[in-house]
Amino acid sequence: MNMNNKVILVVLDGLNNQVARDCMGYLNGLLEQQRATFYTVQSELPSMSRPLYECILTGVRPVDSGIVSNQIVRRSHHESIFSLATSQGKTTAAAAYHWVSELYNRAPYEPIRDRFTHDTDLNIQHGCFYHWDNYPDEALFLDAEHLRQTHQPDFLLIHPMNIDDTGHKFGLDSRQYRNSARHADIIVSHYIDTWLQDGYQLIITSDHGMNNDLSHGGILPEERDVPFVVIGDAFSHQECRIKQTDICGNVCQLLGIQHEKDVTQGLLAV
Ligand SMILES: [Zn+2]
Predict the structure, then answer these.
(1) C-alpha to C-alpha distance for 209 and 15, rounded to whole angstroms
(2) What's the rounded Cα separation, in Å, for the pair 249 and 64?
(3) How far apart are the CA of 90 and the centre of ligand 1, in A?
(4) What is the pLDDT of residues 126-151, one digit of tens each?
(5) 42-67 confidence digits (pLDDT tens)
(6) How many Cα atoms are found within 13 Å in the side-chain-facing hemisphere of 103?
(7) Which residues, chain by chain, have CB under 5 Å from ion ligand 1?
(8) Which of 31, 211, 215, 270 shows a CA-CA span of 20 to 30 A to 164?
(9) Which PANTHER family match (predicted)?
(10) Cβ contacts of 136 within 8 Å, gap of 6 or more
């Protein structure tokens, strides 16, 4: 298959693997009809947000990238999906937490300058960034869809925060945390058909999971295991073992751009 696809990467922050399996009815409906395939990915370490945004978007582990904690506020030192795509003539967009703007566009984030970004010289050319942990997922998806319809990006990152935020308030084993995952599933269900009709390949995953101490960061399976759901005809939908460090390279393959990142054997259709 000639890989020259458009890609939407949805990173549902802090979504535990088993909660995704149990609570996301729409995604499970696609799985039952063989329109989607669910894999489990083990997050790299530490199982923290900013280190794993960098891992997902550059393929570089935190211990190698230097983005070792949420407190490291600087631009990435590595090629990312955004930098590789824009340098090869693709259009990029993101509706994401402001740390993503700091990693790939400008650090530190200045909301008056950066919240709405439109600059084709930046790695993320079209951005809507937020800095409130309780910014509604519903609004974030509307932001993303506005960027998509206005700019037709080849690569769009969608990164809502409500599941993680709820986990920090109530913990993994709580009705509130599970219900936030159910709510995200409902929001996603309103967009998937349109995205597929417009020719996008879809990946839905998370950076890290959640524990019962209202946190994450360590090596517990509930903190590390996250879902990785693929939808679209560019995927093989066959069994394979995906590493979090492969995600960047897999997206570059889908986009049909040159890169030197790791990829997952067997994930994509040939
Ligand atoms: Zn968190």
Answers:
(1) 5
(2) 17
(3) 31
(4) 999 999 999 999 999 999 999 999 99
(5) 999 999 999 999 999 999 999 999 99
(6) 32
(7) 14, 164
(8) 31
(9) BIS(5'-ADENOSYL)-TRIPHOSPHATASE (PTHR10151:SF120), ECTONUCLEOTIDE PYROPHOSPHATASE/PHOSPHODIESTERASE (PTHR10151)
(10) 162
